[in-house]
Design brief:
alpha/beta, BUG, TAT_signal, D-Maltodextrin-Binding Protein, domain 2, 5-stranded mixed sheet
Length: 327
């Protein structure tokens, strides 16, 4: 047997090591995730988005046999949490569970340290929660036409309460005012809780918010539901007609819950995350739980999420300008 010189042997071993490493790369990609995945929620714990994020994180982790760690990073209209993901390594180990401000901040003209259309890669539009227009039960209003007519008849108009300036409910109220010519005045609170209390107490006649908390109080008889700003009625409140049914098809306002990752994340990882999230969205227990809490299950493709974000920006930018909303 011919003896291999030391130099040749070293070259051969190096080549063998290189081939071994190259051969292991696909296996490594298939092994994702091989360490804990951070799920960034740009809200404080306990809210609607946080609840959906924790539900999906738990189920996705179980399906992948991995650990998903939810991190709440609230503040600056979601910018702090969003920026965390935008500047994270594009390796699939940092995921954003985004909410409506992801698109609305752009429409509102807020300066952000990232570009929502360039610095993120879409995974899935998970669900949406439409705005519900409600009134205090002591008022005589039962339709949008009633509200519009009453606001025009009273020189002082009518006031509507929301969780804050620039929120989705605020924009829906402004869209109604602009499209109908109603004499409506916005009263922005610091959160849903105080706005809800004043609406139930009669301090303000109208309250615009999502199923939680507005719809829950409608079901309890403490508020009267007037309209759902969604293409379809909500299953928990089937007797409340949509805005379209009442002659305002253009007034659609829904907070959304979406999964995104940093731009540049390998498509194979995005596809894997989408596949798992889609499977979770089809679990009967998950669907029933979300639907009963006032969510619409959307479970989009990555491309559909991109289209949705573009549409939301284009939908609300002219409303913001026409209403003169400034933050």
């Amino acid at each position: 047997m011919m003896d291999i010189p030391n130099v040749s042997r070293r070259h051969a071993l190096a080549a063998l090591a290189a081939m071994t490493t190259m051969g292991s790369l696909p296996a490594r990609a298939q092994a994702y995730p091989s360490k804990p995945v951070r799920v960034i929620v740009p809200y404080a714990p306990g809210g609607a988005l946080d609840s959906v994020a924790r539900l999906f994180s738990l189920r996705m982790a179980a399906r992948l046999g991995a650990t998903f760690i939810v991190e709440n990073k609230p503040g600056a209209n979601n910018i702090i949490g969003n920026e965390t993901v935008a500047k994270a390594p594009a390796n699939g180990y940092t995921i954003l569970f985004a909410g409506a401000p992801f698109a609305l901040n752009t429409a509102l003209g807020i300066k952000e340290p990232y570009d929502v259309l360039k610095d993120f890669a879409p995974v899935m539009l998970v669900s949406s929660t439409p705005v519900i227009i409600t009134v205090n039960p002591a008022t005589p209003y039962r339709t949008l036409a009633d509200i519009v007519a009453a606001s025009k008849a009273d020189p002082k108009g009518l006031s509507f309460a929301t969780a804050g300036v620039g929120s989705m409910p605020h924009l829906v109220g402004e869209a109604l005012r602009l499209q109908s010519g109603a004499n409506l005045t916005h009263v922005g609170y610091k959160g849903s809780a105080p706005a809800l209390q004043d609406a139930m107490g009669g301090a303000v006649p109208l309250f615009f918010d999502a199923y939680t908390p507005a719809g829950v109080q409608v079901a309890a008889g403490k508020l009267r539901g007037i309209a759902v700003a969604s293409p379809t009625r909500l299953r928990p409140l089937p007797n409340i007609p949509t805005t379209a049914e009442q002659g305002f098809p253009g007034i659609v306002g829904e907070a959304f819950q979406a999964l995104l990752v940093p731009a540049g994340t390998p498509r194979a990882i995005i596809d894997k995350l989408h596949e798992v999230a889609l499977a979770v969205s089809r679990e009967p227990e998950v669907r029933d739980r979300l639907v009963q809490q006032g969510y619409n299950i959307l479970a989009s493709t990555p491309e559909e999420l991109t289209t949705y974000v573009h549409r939301e920006i284009n939908r609300w930018t002219p409303i913001v300008k026409a209403a003169g909303i400034k933050l």
